[in-house]
C-alpha cells in the first residue's frame, strides 16, 4: 500500500539539492509526482508531492531529517485527499506599481467571493521606462458551487481602480 506525502524544504541555493531530495525518494522506493521549487533571494525552497510505500514513511522521514546536517531543512506531512468538487479554474493576472497590501487585498477579494487559491506566483520587477518597482502576480483560482464570479469581478475592478493596477480574470 502507498501513501502520498508532501515534502517542504529550504536551504542555501546551491547545485545538487534537487538531486539529493530525489535520490532519497528513490532510495525509499518512492515516486516524485508534483513540485514547486524556486530560488527566493539567496535561498532555495520548495514543496513536492511524492508517493511512497507506507512501510517507507518512517525511514524517509528520518533520512530527510538527516539533511539538516548539510544545511537543508525539511518537513514531511501527509498530502491528504484530493479535492473533488472543483468545477473549473480561472487565472487572475495583476500588474501595477508595487506597494504593501496587494496580496492581502487580492486574497481577501478571492476568499470573500468564495474562491480558493490553487497557485500564486508574484514578483517585483523594475518598470522598463521609469525604473520604479512593478508588482506582478498570477494566481490560478478554483471555482466550486459556492463561488460568485460576478462578485469577484466587481471586487477586482474596485481593487484595480483603488490601487492603480491592471487586473485580468481569464478562464482556463
TrEMBL record:
It is found in: Cytoplasm. InterPro entries: ACT-like_dom_sf, ACT_dom, GcvR, UPF0237/GcvR_regulator. Pfam families: ACT, ACT_6. Keywords: Cytoplasm, Repressor, Transcription. It comes from the Bacteria. Residues 6-81, 91-170 form the ACT domain. This is Glycine cleavage system transcriptional repressor. It comes from Congregibacter variabilis. The lineage of its organism: Bacteria, Pseudomonadati, Pseudomonadota, Gammaproteobacteria, Cellvibrionales.
